[in-house]
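User: Cytochrome b5 isoform A, Apostasia shenzhenica:
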Amino acid sequence: MAVGSKKYSVSEISGHTSKDDCWLIIHGKVYDVTDFLEDHPGGDDVLLQAAANGDATQSFEDVGHSTAATNQMESFFMGVVDGIEAAVDAGGGDSNPAPASAGGNSNQAPAAGDPLLTKKPPAASPTSFMDVLLPLLILASAFAAWCYLKYYNNVQA
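Assistant: Predicted structure for Cytochrome b5 isoform A:
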């Protein structure tokens, strides 16, 4: 976080959710994305909805933005959310915000190896029963039809 960043209250930020004035909270930082609404690849509705929901951090992370997009965000930076320490990891990227009242030195950036700040790859989805059963049923049906046509029809003829 930049020293001397302006602090905004959540209630103040929540008043900026229109096409004419749109602010986002991402990782405890406040961004004025009004001028970017029309240029956003996902459309302005995505940003407006994220602004209306309050903290857009989870939505931002779920999409998996590129480094270029993350770097571009800095041009929209306005300040930080009052009461939240915007943490920066060793790689220079944003990480999850930590409440300023959390124990320890709130001015110190979290350790790079902190397991709470390490982004985990998405877990592989477990194979559902239908993912296995349906192909097996189709295969069994095809085999049964082949057997019927090959052997049962020959006996009848």
